[in-house]
Amino acid sequence: MPEGDVVWNTARRLREALAGRVLTRSDFRVPRYATADLRGRAVLDVASRGKHLLVRVEGGATIHVHLLMDGEFRVRPAGPPPRGHRVRLVLANEEFQAVGSSLGILELLPTADEDRVVGHLGPDLLDPGWDAALRDEAVRRLAERPERPIGEAVMDQTRLAGIGNVYKSELLFLRGVQPWTPVADVADLPGLVDLAHRLLDANKARHGHITTGDRRPGREHWTYGRYDRPCRRCGTRVRRAYQPSEAGDRSTYWCPRCQPER
Length: 262
Hints:
The chain is built from six helices and ten strands, in the order αββββββββαααααββ. It is an alpha+beta fold. It folds into two domains: 4-118, MutM-like, N-terminal (N-terminal domain of MutM-like DNA repair proteins, Alpha-Beta Barrel); 132-254, Helicase, Ruva Protein, domain 3.
């Protein structure tokens, strides 16, 4: 599932291609919106909110998208409409066309009703106005369920929005926290949330998640995807297990020496 930084970057690319331009093609390839037509309207903005995309169109309409596991957008020069059974949405103007494939959620709603689809989310780690107040709100929400394992809590988008499976494992490794540690036992929750913000912010404008600072292939992560391989820090074999999330049970990676049980 694309994480918050990937969705932010997708919104940026869509904004550059669509915002301020009038739509010449509006093709919803889902039965519910098969007759929807936004041609002749200008795209006002494209915003990300956690893992959600909001394409705001002139006339008070918003296209709401969640990529879920396999969704993606590709921006191409204007041309013939694309084919393919995976294509769900095509938005085009005289210069570009944006093609959305395998979109997990696609709906058209009044812009005034955006809160219905994103109002439940916690503070967005890539909010352009990120500050101590948003951090403290995220900490407050995490602390509402002190008995919950921290690996589950940070994946809950109603606590803080943007963390997915990769950042869960990498964040907890960098903080030396075992994923099944209760939230109440995690030292310095504000520091953990601040680090989550810094990790996503550092990666938002590039492809791929790099948490080690090493861009060489195969060296981007500390523990994620490294089951039964030596920890980069201490040499202990990395372990893997599954934890619940809103998308089902997801793999969690950790080093039992660098992240000891408490």
